[in-house]
Amino acid sequence: MEDREQPKLEAVQLVCARDDRTLFDGLQFTLGPREIAQVEGPNGSGKTTLLRIICGLTLPDAGEVRWCGRNILDIRFEYFCAVAYIGHAHAVKAELTPIENLQMTRALGNARLSVDLVEALDRVGLWGYEHVPCRTLSAGQRRRVALARLLVADARLWVLDEPFTALDRTGRRDIEAMLIDHSAAGGMAILTTHHVVELGECTVTRIHLNG
Question: Is 101 helix (H, G, I), strand (E, B) or coil?
Fold first, then answer.
């Protein structure tokens, strides 16, 4: 990852209410290079909603998200280029092969052209499946295709909603290794997960939502 201006993500007094229920009020945190934040809380506490707010896909009821000190709504293009988001819906095109899905990611821009797509698929345990239609893959394998996009996108901030869903133990270890490497290279990540995550020496901040 290239040495660029050191970014910073800030959540400033975020408020979110759904169905007359306040999910979080006055939520604040900061995330910098080489840091990972894990959002915790019971079902319905607003974890997915918070990640969508961080991505600029959902507006908070109050407060703002800042990137490099500026409201993300004022720098949408710059911010969206810096973010890679993997949500519950993996957005893998079923009729395309894994390598075609990665080629599409690359074609959309802001990609790391130096990354070998076959090696990226091998990194997530899909060696030998490069040219198989994704509709024939298992749920866990399609999840791996989605996560391989992280290796192709040139994004400083990874936003991951339950990235370990449908993955076996080996798959979880592969993704943990990707997070460790991303952090070591100066990246940052915010994720939700019900799994115990082993991230070595990474700096991990826990954000707890009570719901």
Answer: helix
